[in-house]
Amino acid sequence: MAHARSVIGNSSHTIDQPYIPLQPPANPSNQSSEEEIPPFPTPEISTITLENKPGAKISYTYYPPSSSTPHRPNPFAKSLVVYLNGLMLPRSSWEASMHSFLSKRITNQLPYPALLSYDRYGQGDSDRDPDDKEPPPCHGHDCQSAVHDLRQFTLQIWKEHLDITSPTNFPALIFVCNSIGCAIARLFAQTYPGTVLGLLFLDSIMANTDLGKIWPDPDAKGFDPHVLPPGVSEKDVRDARVKYSRMFGPDIPNSEGLSRRNLATLLPSSSGPRLNGYGGEGPYLTVCGHDWETFAEQSYTGSLHTPKVLTMTYANPAWQTYNEGLVQITDEGKAVGPLIAVGCGHFVQKDGPEFVADELVSLLDRVVNRVEQVSERDGG
User: Fold this and answer.
1) Where is this region: Disordered (predicted)?
2) Which of 41, 182, 252, 261 is deepest in the core (most CB within 10 A)?
3) pTM value?
């Protein structure tokens, strides 16, 4: 059952551009005048070259963690929140939610971890993957390659910014991810067990599904047109299948060069395998899906022009079933969801940055307080 929540090392490292800091949060009305609000952190907008891929830069935005003292230790001092993009939106799409999250923590004088967003190779401000042999759009590399790059990237960031005196350690990672970023986060946790402390999934890609095939096939033998919703023709369904296959099919290349041809093989099930997270336990997990009405409206008014009744009848239920499987990839009591991001389409961070910030706050509270949730897998 879904629940709704309202949206109110030896690296090349250069600073690329000046940054005008966002305005710090205003002093809340209930804040004592004697208490000073900690300063809003100044982000670093920069590039880094991976040690194993010289000659190509990755662009990133980094917010340092809150200070840690013997009297007020930061429980997230050894943690790193990493935002993982989908295919369509670059790292800049996270900025509003990052700012909102930091504002909430600072105004309440609560500690916060370091925040890191980045553009994968071929995205946003980053260079193309130097290992890609063809120009974009192409199938230059797959999600497993993106996972290896992410491991090297986070390791170098950790060495340079957070663990200078003891760079052999690795941070407890918390991934905030959208769309295919959720698949990359799952593969990372599988490939590098014991590293991921928390996961916030925002409308994960259905990694094991060809989206063109979620619709009925009117040309299949024995197809019964009477099963279609009222007012929907065979042509409507056929058009939806063709449009989705041409835009989202796993064989369609993209400008990032990130191939999805083998994604269903890499992640054949939404409900497994069970992840081994930081400290040998399953990671804390929050699974969020899009608002059905909002997604149906955006699918109709967007380039696909999919009739809303089709999206409501076929696409939304399929996505909900996939999300219900995702809550099973961690230990019992560690998962929350699937939640519905009210008012948000597929790009939750764009439509609801406050929702993303609130869910990250909630996830961190569970992490630091070791709170487990009542399981809803059996309808409880």
Assistant:
1) 1-47, 121-141
2) 182
3) 0.88
